[in-house]
Amino acid sequence: MKKANLGSLRRRFTSLLTALTFTVLAVTGVIAFVRPFSIHIIGLHALIGFLFIALVGVHVVNNIRPLKGYLHSRSVWVSLVITLLLAILFFRQPGPVKSILGLSANIGPAMDRFELSDSEMTFHYTPAGSYKMKLTVKTGAAYRIDNPPAAAVWLENQGGYHIKSLLVPEAAMISRLPYWNFKRKGWEKAKREAEKKAGVDIISEATPNGSFDPADYILPASKDNPMPYQLLIEIDQPDDGQPSLVYSVEVDNSDPRAFQLLDLVGYPKRENDSGDKETWALYYVDDQFSSALELINSALLTIERQDPPDAQKKSGTPKSSAFQKL
Amino acid sequence: MTKKDNPTDRRDFLQQSILGSAGAGLVIASTSHVAAAASTDSSEPELINEVDVLVVGGGTAGTIAAIQAGRAGANTLLLERNAQLGGTMTTGGVAFPGLFDAWGQQVIAGIGWELVKECVELDGGEFPNFAKVPQRHWHNQVHINQFLYALLAEEKCEQAGVEIAYYEFPQSVEKTDTGWQVECAGFGTRRRILCKQIIDCTGGAEVVGLMGLDRLREDERQPGSFLFKMDTAHNPAENQLHRLYVHGADSTNSRTVTKANLTGRKAILAKVRNAKQRLMHLQPETGFRESYRIVGEIMITVNDYTSGRVFDDAVAYAFYPVDLHTKSGVKPKPLKPGTVPTIPLRALVPKGSQNVIVAGRCVCSDRLANSGLRVQASCMAMGQAAGAAAALAAKTGSTPLQVPLASIHGVLRENAAIIPETSAV
Ligand SMILES: Cc1cc2nc3c(=O)[nH]c(=O)nc-3n(C[C@H](O)[C@H](O)[C@H](O)COP(=O)(O)OP(=O)(O)OC[C@H]3O[C@@H](n4cnc5c(N)ncnc54)[C@H](O)[C@@H]3O)c2cc1C
């Protein structure tokens, strides 16, 4: 009798807890979808999720007998198939699913998309709903779809510091793109050191360039303090015996342009540096280049801007975490 | 030449001084080589010089203009209101000439580069690698030792036969049949200069102003900067000086320059007190970015500049981003790859004028084009072109715009200048 009481108490308690934790999970899930990324919401969602799994375990043990009954019904198989199909669909993210995800204030901005065809490479980056970047690289005569070149796309601030990689090459190709790799490593190091010094900008540029948050550059909170940034591409055909080439364009939100072509800047060369500190600089293209110059026909950056509402501009909220903090 | 004496007298005098005072330092040559006018009437000058070319302002552009005019055979006098040559580069302390290169190639050379190169070599300094893409637009500027530069500039002037008159400035300029009569003053000096050609290199086209020719000026001008160094010692050509914006700084006359200096120094004193650091270096004068520009025979517009228009009468290249300093700071706008602007001779000639040419930041240009054209390498290139044109005009009894462009180019090439390929020549 005593035992039975205890058992039903435990059951009721588990059921209630399971239901309540599930509510928290569902609500935080919806918030995470519609609101910009928040470490509090995602943290809560994840941890409650673990608790929920544990509770579901207990719940299953508690209700093992009735659950066993389900196994013999047909509906279990139908449910399984439906779940499996949905999982595959959501994982593959075909167009319609993507556009639903694009509605999310959290997932949408993170959906960098890269498409490749034999005439062009298209790259989408949407840091915020009001700011859509598209890079269209028309391939040149030396481009081969069966053996495409290695490429990296990234943003730099005015001080020449890497602020975000938009297209990261496959690991095997990294050595073919030394300039991007050098910039990215420098940035990671600077960021680590800055974090160590907690809050102190170690990038000794005038403060605007000291920020590690791409949002500061792409969506500056104040129009009076525009922070132009560069978009760069490094591209290399591994077997052509020529170094990689770097193209770039400056984006200045105080002088907004919908279309901007990237210019060829130069090629990277390792500096005569001392010790193991590796430094790379760009040099003007000379006569060692032939087919490499034909990899890209043109690279066009298109930015679709919508003025954020005035209130946002003033309070500086565009800077908020529509970005995944890097 | 009816100058009252002969420059070689002075050289002899100096040489004797050196010999006579071996080991004891130099004896300063007196200015007695210019005979005093007999009259004691205070309205009459004490000295009268007759020269081919008078260069007013021995700054960035003027020094080069004078050397070029001297080398081209003109009897040249250089007037400078301050105590040394170099202007903004030395007195202002902006010892950072740029840009001699564009897109991997040298685009400005000539006498300016010759001086800069010698200065860096003598100082044991380093040259930027022009094959390298600069990370920031100013990375390929050359760090020079301002003190050494001023000395070398004097030496080069002397070698070119240029006579220097410090602490002097023109007070009036009158047209004559053969050129100009310029009344000048310095402390204890009143000088009349009769010259065939004038090159105005005062920065703000002050002589052109005295002539009553049109000049341009913006309502809001770029701030000046006072250069100084706190805390650590200044190592010339090695490190940069601190800069303090002096808003409203105006180089037009002694009153406005005084005001800028007082304002700048007061602010620096406040900084020293505030930071409780030692003041280790202070330039003698504010550096001025912008004042008057001439209304020339042609105006270089920002479109000409950013499109790299090659003028028919181009005498030099220029290279720098559009770089306007405003109250909210600087926002350089780089030129498109491959673009190298050019400077036409007509932009150096005041509209409707004869026998006068300018060089330096007062070049006829709109404000945005000027923000790129005003840098030192371009000023030097303009100086050299103006020097060649004025010397040739003096020699042929014509005015700079009548001198065949090919002759000007010829003189410039003899002095290692790089000249844009124009269709006209
Ligand atoms: C703070 C600052 C930073 C700058 N930074 C750079 C830089 O990094 N790189 C770069 O290349 N350029 C830079 N510039 C621009 C450049 O230094 C100037 O535009 C350039 O030196 C101007 O040359 P100029 O020959 O026209 O005038 P100046 O070099 O100023 O020469 C004018 C000369 O004329 C004399 N003078 C004036 N009036 C009279 C008169 N009435 N009678 C007799 N003499 C007179 C003056 O004393 C002076 O010596 C900077 C300028 C400033 C102020």
Oligomer: heterodimer
Distance between the termini of chain A: 58 Å
Order of helices and strands of chain B: HEHEEEHHEEEEHEEEHEEHEEEEEHHH
CATH level 3 topology of the largest domain in chain B: FAD/NAD(P)-binding domain
Q: What is the overall shape of chain A?
A: elongated
The structural class of chain A is alpha+beta
Number of helices of chain B: 10
Q: Structurally, how many domains make up the residues of chain B?
A: 2
Shape of chain B: globular
**Overall residue-averaged pLDDT value of chain B:** 90
Profile the largest sheet of chain A.
Answer: 6 strands, antiparallel
Name of the CATH superfamily of the largest domain in chain B? FAD/NAD(P)-binding domain
Describe the protein.
The complex is a heterodimer of chains A (326) and B (425). By secondary structure, chain A is α+β, with helices and mostly antiparallel strands. Chain A has 2 domains: 2-101, no CATH class; 112-321, no CATH class. Chain A contains 9 helices and 11 strands. Chain A has helices at 2-34, 39-62, 64-71, 75-92, 95-102, 107-110, 178-196, 214-218, 310-315; strands spanning 113-116, 120-128, 131-139, 150-156, 162-167, 229-236, 245-251, 259-261, 263-270, 280-283, 296-305. In chain A, helix 1 (2-34) packs antiparallel against helix 2. The relative contact order of chain A is 0.12. With 425 residues, chain B is α/β, with parallel strands linked by helices. Chain B contains 10 helices and 18 strands. In chain B, a hairpin with a 2-residue loop joins strand 15 and strand 16 (329-330). Chain B starts with 6 loop residues before the first helix and ends in an 11-residue tail after the last helix. Mean pLDDT of chain B is 90; it is low at 1-25 and 29-33. Chains A and B meet through strand 9 and strand 10 of A and loops of B. Bound molecules: flavin-adenine dinucleotide (FAD).
